[in-house]
């Protein structure tokens, strides 16, 4: 594809997405331009990925067909103000921030603009992310397909209604953090039982990945898959009983409700 892709902000999420885009060869590094306030990090990333860099966000805006806003949510307003005039009417803004609705972004630009609201996650770094997307009314069918192909280089792409975005933040945008905590806790427990740390991470992570794959590939209910592991009078049901007693499910549900509520306030 000969589209020019721009990223404003070159942090964790931008690098995860760029990695997938470049690896897929859908867009070459020479057609990607990235800006960041922190020069050393930007130069290190150019070294690694070979894309163009600038410290001028307006340069990214005026030279890109698709512009990813990859700064923290609290920077959105000031960055949009900064680039609004330099952004062409036919360019597409891709938002990746929680809480920033299509209406808020359109209003911040103060002009008729094409916007795609998305919520990606960091597993994009290994090509295994999932990204929710929702276009505003100015994006054409062809543009929507083009955007899906770009985002598809680093993740599954799921179109959803905008009102579900806070739920998406809690179930996929933020959820890798809780999964990492779960893996870390399982590894700690294995270490406590004598297993070397590196092996413990491998066993825990592979088990989480395999279990996730079983859900996606068998499409069986998670409860049925759990029951397949729990032998009568066996070891697993002992662990399950302790998790229930300690409020494992309630903790997850309450954590995700806090996450979604925070997203709605941002
Ligand atoms: N990290 C994650 O797991 C996910 C993050 N997001 C969203 O992605 C966005 C970026 O998050 P991260 O990559 O995690 O943050 P980050 O802090 O790693 O990256 C932000 C980058 O923006 C740069 N920056 C700050 N002010 C700037 C300015 N005025 N102009 C240009 N660059 C500037 C910073 O130097 C930094 O490199 C946020 O809106 C976040 O909510 C969305 C989904 C997942
Ligand atoms: O913690 C955050 O605000 C961002 C949004 C989703 C994941 N990280």
Polypeptide structure, described:
It contains 12 helices and 8 strands. With 266 residues, the chain is of the alpha/beta class. The protein has 2 domains: 5-165, NAD(P)-binding Rossmann-like Domain (Rossmann fold, 3-Layer(aba) Sandwich), CATH 3.40.50; 173-265, Orthogonal Bundle (ProC C-terminal domain-like fold), CATH 1.10.3730.10. Strands 3-2-1-4-5-6-7-8 form an 8-stranded mixed sheet, with helices on both faces. The model has no long low-confidence stretch (mean pLDDT 96). The protein binds 1,4-dihydronicotinamide adenine dinucleotide and (2S)-3,4-dihydro-2H-pyrrole-2-carboxylic acid. 1,4-dihydronicotinamide adenine dinucleotide (NAI) is lined by residues 8-14, 35-38, 41, 57, 70-73, 75, 79, 96-98, 119-122, 173.
**Morphology call:** elongated
What structural class do the secondary elements suggest?
alpha/beta
How widely separated are the two ends? Answer: 34 Å
Strand order of the largest sheet: 3-2-1-4-5-6-7-8
CATH structural fold name of the largest domain: Rossmann fold
The helix fraction, in percent, is 40-55%
| Top-tier CATH class of the largest domain | Alpha Beta
Largest sheet: 8 strands, mixed
| Rg over C-alpha atoms, rounded to the nearest angstrom | 21 Å
Quickly count the domains.
2
Give a count of the beta strands, DSSP E runs of length 2 or more.
8
Average residue-wise pLDDT: 96
């Amino acid at each position: 594809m000969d589209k020019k892709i721009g990223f404003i902000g070159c942090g964790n999420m931008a690098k995860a997405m760029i990695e997938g885009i470049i690896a897929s060869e859908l867009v070459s590094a020479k057609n990607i331009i990235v800006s960041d306030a922190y020069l050393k990090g930007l130069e290190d990333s150019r070294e690694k990925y070979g894309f163009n860099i600038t410290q001028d966000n307006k340069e990214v805006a005026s030279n890109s067909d698709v512009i990813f806003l990859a700064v923290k949510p609290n920077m959105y307003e000031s960055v949009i103000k900064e680039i609004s005039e330099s952004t062409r009417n036919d360019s597409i803004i891709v938002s990746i921030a929680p809480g920033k609705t299509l209406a808020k972004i359109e209003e911040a630009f103060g002009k008729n603009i094409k916007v795609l609201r998305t919520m990606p996650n960091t597993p994009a770094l290994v090509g295994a992310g999932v990204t929710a997307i929702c276009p505003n009314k100015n994006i054409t069918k062809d543009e929507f397909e083009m955007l899906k192909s770009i985002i598809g280089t680093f993740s599954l792409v799921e179109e959803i209604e905008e009102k579900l975005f806070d739920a998406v933040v809690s179930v996929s945008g933020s959820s890798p953090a809780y999964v990492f905590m779960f893996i870390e806790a399982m590894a700690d427990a294995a270490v406590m039982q004598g297993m070397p740390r590196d092996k413990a991470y491998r066993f825990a992570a592979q088990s989480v990945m395999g279990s996730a794959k079983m859900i996606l590939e068998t499409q069986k209910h998670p409860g049925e898959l759990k029951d397949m592991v729990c032998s009568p009078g066996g070891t697993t049901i002992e662990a399950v009983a302790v998790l229930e007693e300690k409020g494992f499910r309630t903790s997850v549900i309450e954590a995700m409700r806090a996450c979604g509520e925070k997203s709605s306030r941002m």
